[in-house]
């Protein structure tokens, strides 16, 4: 009897120990599950983006040269300033030109006096001819002299007009609104008409960006675009992380370049804040007109397996599953998935960095951050874009 009680007690103790051991093992297993961030995939309307590189060009650029030769007497601008059309920039020594104008004015006075005398003599000759007091030959000679005096006066007046223009051209003014560069030739130096480059001026209110689109892309994504439709584009300058400048297409060339198979296109950007400079390297983003809905996930959620791309999805019992995917356009730190995922799928946000397929995990639900990311190119305020056209 005593032996029987001892056996029962031992058996009961063993059951208790086994139960505690299993509970401890279960708790330990749960504690050792890898915690990972998971998120439900997004489904967004998106446009296909196309990126092109270019350099900005000013619509108007002037290499300023004098129209007359002379010596620079004064420089009337500060280098690098904004100038307006008609502003005085350089002044040449005008004394030689003033002298020419004064000489011609004096010659005109003399020519007018000679013309008045020739007219008087011609009238007198006409009266004498009626009375046959003068020969026809003498009358014609006086008439010819009158015509010569008239021609001499007209020539002198034309020379005076030219001399006055030359005098006016000694004041060299800005032909456009823009930003002026440095003075290439300084005060006291002689300049030659149509040869000496005094400085350069570039207009700054707008900037052009020319880029080439290959024929296949144009026909598949942009065939319905015209210059009149003002297709929106965005631009990123070197050193910037975002495409902060908005513009639109205002010119499409009239033919495909047969040598390159590309079409030349131009975008225009208003520079209200004077942040753009001619010659700057830039990247242009152009969105196709067609909008489609696609699955969006973080770029870091995508893994690479030889030539394949895959993501880890959360399956039953929180076990990770391997899914092949095909990737589409990139939108900031996010990526469109064209096949392999569906709405409602839950993915490992950080990809296969610390986990793999078939592993049970401890999921931590997070949301995919889309702040500051444009999936479609929003319509621009066309009134503000074309206000300075």
TrEMBL record:
Membrane topology: Lipid-anchor
Entry keyword Ubl conjugation: no
Residue ranges occupied by any Multidrug resistance protein MdtA-like barrel-sandwich hybrid domain in the UniProt entry: 60-197
Domain of life: Bacteria
Signal peptide: 1-24
Domain (Multidrug resistance protein MdtA-like C-terminal permuted SH3) ranges: 295-351
UniProt keywords, alphabetically: Signal
InterPro entries: MdtA-like_b-barrel (IPR058626), MdtA-like_BSH (IPR058625), MdtA-like_C (IPR058627), MdtA-like_HH (IPR058624), RND_pump_MFP (IPR006143)
SUPFAM superfamilies, alphabetized: HlyD-like secretion proteins
Domain Multidrug resistance protein MdtA-like alpha-helical hairpin: 103-170
Domain Multidrug resistance protein MdtA-like beta-barrel, first and last residues per copy: 232-287
Annotated compartments: Cell inner membrane
Family statement: Belongs to the membrane fusion protein (MFP) (TC 8.A.1) family.
NCBIfam families reported in the protein's UniProt record: RND_mfp
Protein name, per record: Resistance-nodulation-cell division multidrug efflux membrane fusion protein MexE
């Amino acid at each position: 009897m005593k032996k029987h009680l001892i056996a029962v007690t031992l058996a009961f103790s063993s059951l208790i120990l086994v139960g505690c051991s299993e509970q401890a093992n279960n708790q330990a297993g749960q504690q050792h599950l890898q915690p990972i961030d998971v998120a439900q995939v997004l489904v967004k309307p998106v446009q296909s983006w196309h990126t092109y590189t270019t350099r900005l060009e000013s619509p108007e650029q002037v290499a300023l040269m004098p129209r007359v030769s002379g010596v620079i007497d004064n420089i009337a601008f500060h280098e690098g300033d904004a100038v307006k059309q008609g502003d005085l920039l350089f002044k040449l020594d005008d004394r030689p030109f003033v002298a020419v104008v004064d000489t011609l004015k004096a010659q005109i006075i003399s020519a007018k006096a000679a013309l008045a005398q020739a007219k008087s003599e011609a009238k007198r000759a006409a009266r004498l001819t009626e009375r046959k007091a003068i020969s026809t030959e003498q009358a014609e000679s006086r008439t010819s002299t009158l015509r010569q005096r008239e021609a001499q006066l007209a020539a002198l007046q034309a020379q005076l007009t030219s001399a006055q223009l030359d005098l006016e051209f000694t004041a060299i003014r800005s032909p456009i609104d823009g930003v002026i560069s440095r003075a290439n030739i300084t005060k006291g130096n002689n300049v030659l008409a149509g040869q000496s480059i005094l400085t350069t001026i570039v207009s700054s209110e707008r900037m052009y960006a020319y880029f080439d689109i290959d024929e296949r892309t144009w026909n598949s994504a942009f065939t319905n675009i015209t210059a009149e439709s003002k297709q929106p584009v965005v631009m990123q300058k070197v050193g910037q992380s975002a495409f902060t400048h908005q513009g639109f297409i205002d010119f499409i060339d009239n033919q495909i370049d047969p040598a390159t198979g590309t079409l030349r296109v131009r975008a225009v950007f208003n520079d209200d804040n004077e942040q753009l400079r001619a010659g700057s390297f830039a990247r242009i983003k152009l969105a196709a007109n067609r909008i489609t809905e696609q699955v969006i996930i973080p770029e870091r959620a995508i893994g690479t397996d030889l030539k394949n791309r895959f993501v880890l999805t959360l399956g039953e019992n929180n076990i990770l599953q391997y899914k092949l995917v095909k990737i589409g356009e990139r939108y900031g730190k996010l990526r469109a998935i064209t096949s392999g995922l569906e709405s409602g799928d839950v993915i490992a946000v950080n990809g296969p960095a610390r986990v793999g397929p078939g592993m049970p995990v401890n999921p931590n639900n997070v949301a995919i951050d889309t702040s500051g990311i444009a999936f479609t190119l929003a319509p621009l305020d066309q009134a503000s874009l074309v206000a300075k056209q």
